[in-house]
């Protein structure tokens, strides 16, 4: 008997939600609540935080969750860490469904930094026109570098003016096309792109556009997370469920294990 909690908000989570619904599996889709207009889902939906690790533990216990799947954004580090801790406490099998990170290819001009503060520091210097492709949550951090003009591409129309003295806002939702992003960068005379290494295809167009135009990219690395069983596609997540979702003991060296790709349909 399944009672799955799917921590979502990503394309991969949406595809998995449909697959679970198609198979008639009992599951709940959880949104963090950061997007004002979340996509409709074929599963029951809850919106908002759990109240830290203790709140998530309480939710798992009170609702009788049998399987926990973390398909949040690769940069939702706090939620992912809470999921690891809560699943271990409740002895609930945990799976991470996440996209592989992007890798630089020939022609890319990437400078990689560890986190948002490092990205802010890296922007010290003369004014530039910068595409800040980070969403709205981290915009206040970049007020420390007010000399630049920032192009902000947001999913929702901002409810208050962004805290950056020089900016332009484009409201759009991916997936994006390379031709469109080339035109966007050219129209706004962008000189540098700043983004997180989210991976996946929906937001990769800006990297190809920057490569085509010879623009530098300031790439923010993913946060470090505890070891967990991880897959990179929905078929593998279904396989994990079908196999009983047994989570093997973590290896002594603490490395990540359990990465499957293109396994047979459950």
Explain this structure.
By secondary structure, this protein is of the alpha/beta class. It is built from seven helices and twelve strands. The protein has helices at residues 11-22, 52-63, 77-90, 116-122, 178-187, 205-213, 234-242, and strands at residues 4-7, 27-31, 45-47, 67-70, 94-97, 110-113, 129-133, 149-154, 167-171, 192-196, 217-220, 230-231. α3 links the parallel β4 (67-70) and β5. α2 packs across α3 (77-90) and α5 (178-187) crosses α6. The protein is elongated. The two termini are 15 Å apart. Residues 247-266 have low confidence and may be disordered.
Shape: elongated
Distance between the termini: 15 Å
- Poorly predicted runs are 247-266
- Biggest sheet: strand arrangement: 3-2-1-4-5-12
What's the SSE blueprint?
Elements: E1 4-7, H1 11-22, E2 27-31, E3 45-47, H2 52-63, E4 67-70, H3 77-90, E5 94-97, E6 110-113, H4 116-122, E7 129-133, E8 149-154, E9 167-171, H5 178-187, E10 192-196, H6 205-213, E11 217-220, E12 230-231, H7 234-242
Parallel strand pairs: 1-2, 1-4, 2-3, 4-5, 5-12, 6-11, 7-8, 7-10, 8-9, 10-11
């Amino acid at each position: 008997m399944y009672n799955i909690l799917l921590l979502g908000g990503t394309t991969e989570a949406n595809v998995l939600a449909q697959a679970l619904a198609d198979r008639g599996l009992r599951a709940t889709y959880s949104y963090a609540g950061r997007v004002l207009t979340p996509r409709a889902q074929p599963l029951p939906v809850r919106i908002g935080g759990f109240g830290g690790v203790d709140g998530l533990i309480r939710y798992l216990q009170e609702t009788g969750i049998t399987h926990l799947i973390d398909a949040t954004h690769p940069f939702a580090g706090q939620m992912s860490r809470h999921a690891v801790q809560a699943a271990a406490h409740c002895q609930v099998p945990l799976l991470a469904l996440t996209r592989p990170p992007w890798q630089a290819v020939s022609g890319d001009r990437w400078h990689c930094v560890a986190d948002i503060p490092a990205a802010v520091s890296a922007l010290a210097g003369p004014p530039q026109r910068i595409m800040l492709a980070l969403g709205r949550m981290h915009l206040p951090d970049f007020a420390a570098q007010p000399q630049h003009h920032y192009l902000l591409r947001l999913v929702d129309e901002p409810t208050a003016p962004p805290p950056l003295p020089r900016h332009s806002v484009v409201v759009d939702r991916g997936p994006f096309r390379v031709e469109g992003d080339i035109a966007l960068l050219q129209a706004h005379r962008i000189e540098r792109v700043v983004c997180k290494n989210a991976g996946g295809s929906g937001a990769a167009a800006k990297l190809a556009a920057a490569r085509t135009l010879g623009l530098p990219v300031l790439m923010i690395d993913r946060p470090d997370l505890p070891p967990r069983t991880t897959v990179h596609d929905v078929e593998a997540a279904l396989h994990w469920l079908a196999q009983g979702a047994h989570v093997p003991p973590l290896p002594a060296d603490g490395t990540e294990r359990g990465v499957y790709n293109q396994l047979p349909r459950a």
